[in-house]
């Protein structure tokens, strides 16, 4: 369905008349799981883009206010819970606006950025996981067993074929599957990507979009080490997180799965995306060989 600023505006007027006079404007970054719109100067409206993302609304409404006080950086603060209406079929949210640019913009000190991010993830890990949402459809099984995506991973390898060193790639994947997770569940963000990390003055300043959060195996949050961090920043991130070798192996598995499915799905007209996936996979293979 068409989810645009006009729809968001009608929903606000119908359900939150106290904000009816505020302008509703589309964001520069359109978003995938949600369509996000500025509401005045201090708020944003987030509308799930499909039914499979709708369960994330209630989860964020419940848990973000509980997590926020113990975290070293700002996270989204729910201000209101919207209901289906105006032809829109799912719940939706109004959040407080957080200033910042995505981490894809300039980072003044990549090592400090990596250490600050590790500190945030460590603080998230310290929250009591009791009653937290376990891996499931709501977060696409982030924090669950990697075996959930075994068949999809192997299909992607087969599809890419000669573009890969198949034996080496499967060695990374098989090692990740063998690195069983048997620790206590921990809180995880579930989608630590540059687009969900905000910066101000070149420093990490906020973490947004907790739609994939839950409690389980935090290895999925390590993918940023290979998808975005490089060199000394990657090593600083690793050093700042007290995780065992098995967790890092599973982190490589999560990263490999995502890079493979993205590359396998790319049309031939997107060589830049394919090149990025190939670089990530090469890094994973090289690191695995060095162990």
Please tag this protein with its features.
291 residues; alpha+beta; Phosphorylase Kinase, domain 1; Aminoglycoside 3'-phosphotransferase, Chain: A, domain 2; 2 domains; 5-stranded antiparallel sheet; 3-stranded antiparallel sheet; 9 helices
Fold and architecture overview:
- The chain has 9 helices and 10 strands.
- It is globular and about 60 Å long.
- By secondary structure, the chain is α+β, with helices and mostly antiparallel strands.
- The chain has helices at residues 5-15, 55-67, 110-125, 150-160, 166-178, 224-227, 231-239, 245-265, 271-290, and strands spanning 24-26, 34-39, 43-48, 78-82, 92-96, 101-102, 186-188, 197-200, 203-207, 214-216.
- The chain folds into 2 domains: 5-98, 2-Layer Sandwich (Phosphorylase Kinase, domain 1); 102-290, Aminoglycoside phosphotransferase (APH), C-terminal lobe (Aminoglycoside 3'-phosphotransferase, Chain: A, domain 2), CATH 3.90.1200.10.
- The strands form 3 sheets. The protein has a 5-stranded antiparallel β-sheet, sandwiched between helices. A 3-stranded antiparallel β-sheet has the order 6-8-9.
- A hairpin with a 3-residue loop joins β2 (34-39) and β3 (43-48).
- The N and C termini lie far apart (48 Å).
Approximately what portion of the residues adopt beta-strand conformation? 5-15%
Overall SS class: alpha+beta
Report helical residue fraction. Answer: 40-55%
The CATH homologous superfamily of the largest domain: Aminoglycoside phosphotransferase (APH), C-terminal lobe
Low-pLDDT parts are none
Distance between the termini: 48 Å
